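To the wet lab folks,

You asked to see what we're planning to order before we commit. Fair enough. Below is the target structure as tokens, and below that is the sequence we designed to fit it. If anything looks off to you, flag it before the synthesis order goes out.
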């Protein structure tokens, strides 16, 4: 069975950092892209970053580029998202998901397995 489990969320002040982790089972990370998404209250879910570990391909949304870093630990079958220089508008539930193939994807319909989210709250 494919399972994704996100963790590492918390409450921080503006400028703070967190390290989110997505532990993946039933998936070989080199064969599938993994994406991080977020959903703030009253908004649609948006893609934040994704990675294809097999070729080292990464992608970032414009609002987080330069502040967030995605990485893959294949030995632990875990994808990390280092979130830094946090702003109140980064407050959201963060989800990780498996893409339908190895190419990094930016459309929600391109992902077929989702984990439960982890809450990130940034106070001013």
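Sequence we intend to order:
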């Amino acid at each position: 069975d494919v399972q994704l489990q996100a963790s590492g969320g918390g409450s921080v002040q503006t400028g703070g950092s967190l390290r989110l982790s997505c532990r993946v089972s039933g998936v070989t990370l080199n064969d599938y892209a993994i994406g991080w998404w977020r959903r703030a209250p009253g908004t649609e879910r948006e893609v934040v970053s994704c990675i294809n570990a097999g070729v080292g391909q990464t992608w970032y949304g414009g609002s987080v580029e330069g502040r967030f870093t995605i990485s893959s630990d294949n030995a632990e079958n875990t994808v990390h998202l280092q979130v830094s220089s946090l702003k109140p508008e980064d407050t959201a539930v963060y989800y990780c998901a498996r893409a339908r193939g190895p190419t990094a994807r930016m459309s929600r319909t391109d992902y077929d397995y989702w984990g439960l989210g982890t809450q990130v709250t940034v106070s001013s």
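Structural context that might help your review: The mean pLDDT is 95. The first strand starts at residue 3 and ends at 7.

Thanks,
Computational group
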